[in-house]
């Protein structure tokens, strides 16, 4: 597939759509985002992931019609994002610094990290690859448990208090990494039978190849396993059994005493056992809220919150939005 031709067509479709909005006297999508930014200090992009599509990965072409419009407006989202510079360059502005990317560079960003990305030329071609949180939790992390570079990055966001690792920037990538990236993009665009399986598989391979390139380019050996690996095993087990798990049952499963396991969890994550259980319930609730039209009270009960008022308070404390507000902002069903 000719990715350049595809990107050109997608940009033209966007221009035509915005021209049609103007013809009808309706505001451009970008104008609506700017208004949201002026109200909140940033705008929010939802992934559009839905349980009905079974997609773990989505691909889009970056950029709005007017390049100058893009500068200075911060946004965040509810998914992991991978940026691939296919041609030209790309600029990503963070609150405290700016990263300039060149052709062939790949950046992996945590959700909710404020940034203001833009292209400098209209003929720059940049692909945005959206990766769902369940994809990371359920498929990537289990297969990357011996990869300390990635396991630390993902765990820092998903489970730990630290938010120091906002992104990973992969430069001077090998032809293998470029090939895997473009094959994954092509699979998503063409959407032939079983394309979801193919894109998932390419992403797993890509993460390993990018890590291999990273270690080589930085002249370092593969990092040894760290506490994140054990922490993941524990947290993953909590997540699978969060509706009914107790500290005693968890300790019995991992053959620790409850007191020792409680200290281990606190030392590794900065959170208590109860906080981890609540976080796991809320993450699963957030997934149901955005990908189904199930009533909020039913979602709370499914994940283990039997008092709807407590569920709403806990959810707002974690996500700074009520479940209803979160659905309105991020729902893939709108």
UniProtKB/TrEMBL annotation:
- PROSITE patterns, alphabetically? HTH_ARAC_FAMILY_2
Task: Please list the residue ranges annotated as the HTH araC/xylS-type domain.
Answer: 232-329
What GO molecular function terms would the record report?
DNA-binding transcription factor activity; sequence-specific DNA binding
Q: Does the keyword Transcription regulation apply?
A: yes
Q: Which InterPro entries match?
A: AraC-bd, Homeodomain-like_sf, HTH_AraC, RmlC-like_jellyroll, RmlC_Cupin_sf, Tscrpt_reg_AraC-type_HTH
Gene3D superfamilies annotated for this entry? Answer: Homeodomain-like, Jelly Rolls
Lineage: superkingdom: Bacteria
* Record keywords, A-Z: DNA-binding, Transcription, Transcription regulation
Checking SUPFAM superfamilies in the record gives: Homeodomain-like, RmlC-like cupins
Name of the protein described by the UniProt record: Transcriptional regulator, AraC family
Lineage of origin? Bacteria, Bacillati, Bacillota, Clostridia, Eubacteriales
């Amino acid at each position: 597939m000719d990715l350049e031709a595809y990107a050109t067509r997608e940009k033209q479709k966007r221009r035509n759509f915005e021209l049609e909005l103007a013809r009808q006297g309706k505001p451009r999508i970008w104008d609506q985002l700017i208004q949201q930014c002026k109200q909140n200090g940033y705008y929010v992009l939802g992934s559009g992931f839905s349980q009905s599509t079974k997609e773990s990965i989505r691909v889009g072409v970056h950029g709005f019609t007017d390049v100058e419009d893009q500068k200075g407006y911060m946004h965040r989202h509810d998914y992991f994002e991978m940026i691939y510079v296919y041609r030209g360059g790309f600029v990503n502005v963070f609150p405290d610094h700016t990263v300039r990317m060149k052709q062939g560079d790949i950046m992996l960003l945590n959700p909710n990290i404020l940034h203001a990305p833009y292209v400098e030329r209209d003929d720059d071609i940049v692909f945005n690859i959206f990766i769902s949180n369940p994809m990371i939790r359920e498929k990537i992390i289990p297969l990357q448990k011996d990869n300390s570079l990635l396991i630390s990055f993902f765990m820092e966001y998903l489970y730990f208090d630290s938010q120091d690792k906002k992104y990973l920037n992969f430069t001077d990538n090998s032809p293998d990494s470029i090939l895997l990236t473009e094959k994954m993009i092509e699979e998503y665009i063409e959407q032939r039978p079983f394309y979801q399986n193919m894109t998932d598989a390419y992403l797993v391979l890509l993460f390993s190849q990018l890590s291999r390139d990273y270690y080589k380019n930085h002249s370092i050996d593969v990092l040894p396993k760290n506490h994140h690996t054990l922490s993941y095993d524990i947290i993953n087990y909590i997540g699978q059994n969060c509706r009914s798990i107790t500290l005693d049952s968890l300790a019995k499963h991992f053959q620790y005493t409850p007191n020792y396991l409680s200290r281990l969890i606190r030392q590794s994550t900065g959170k208590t056992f109860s906080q981890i259980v609540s976080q796991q319930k809320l993450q699963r609730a957030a997934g149901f809220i955005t990908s189904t039209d199930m009533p909020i009270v039913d979602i709370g009960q499914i994940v283990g919150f039997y008092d709807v008022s407590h569920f709403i308070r806990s959810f707002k404390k974690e996500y700074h939005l009520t479940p209803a507000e979160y659905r309105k902002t991020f729902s893939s069903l709108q």
